[in-house]
Design brief:
Length: 198
């Protein structure tokens, strides 16, 4: 798990925990749990929502750690400016990742699905929250792996489809050179996330 610190943001948004899970075996149950938690009444609902208070992101659609970090930073920025488009800073990350402004589409594409086998789990919090990794492991059944494992997980075809990059001249010109093509796609995708505004 990696920890990123942003002391220039409000305290409750200043620490980010990011873990990459592979071999996830409970994605369908996790997705059902998230949906159910949204409808539960307090106090039971509050307890359950806190237990799953993370962003669950399909790792296949992340091109690089910079891509993910840019979406996280944008979500924190929007929250600190009180301009969230979604209900929470964690769902805002999914919205930031999506090339359109459709919130439902963002959650459906970038969030956990019944078939997700690799997930980034992100928790944005204050510095005094400890043992975040244990909380993640209580929710996600899988293995935490180094983040450079992402290179083996990314689904470049889906990313090109969602971002409509199959007709992008620079991408077409680099066809056949996977390293160059993927670098171009990553630059486009990161820039798209960085320029997203509310």
């Amino acid at each position: 798990m990696e920890i990123y610190r942003y002391p220039h943001f409000p305290t409750h948004l200043s620490v980010v925990h990011v873990a990459l899970f592979t071999n996830v075996s409970n994605s369908a149950a996790l997705r059902s749990r998230i949906v159910k938690a949204a409808t539960l009444a307090a106090p039971e609902g509050d307890i359950e929502r806190e237990a799953i208070n993370y962003a669950f992101i399909d790792a296949r659609l992340i091109t690089s750690m910079l891509h993910l970090q840019t979406a996280i930073y944008q979500a924190i920025l929007f929250d600190s400016q009180k301009s969230l488009r979604t209900r929470t800073v964690h769902s805002e990350i999914l919205w930031c990742l999506n090339p359109t402004n459709n919130i439902s589409e963002a959650i459906r594409r970038y969030g956990v699905s019944d078939t997700s086998s690799a997930l980034f789990v992100v928790r944005i919090t204050s510095p005094d929250l400890v043992d975040v990794e244990s909380g993640m492991k209580c929710v996600v059944e899988g293995n935490i792996v180094p983040q450079n494992t992402l290179q083996e997980l990314t689904d470049w075809s889906s990313i090109k489809k969602y971002y409509k990059l199959n007709v992008e001249p620079a991408v077409k010109e680099a066809a056949g050179d996977d390293v160059r093509e993927r670098a171009i796609i990553d630059n486009i995708v990161v820039s798209s996330v960085a320029m997203k505004s509310v």
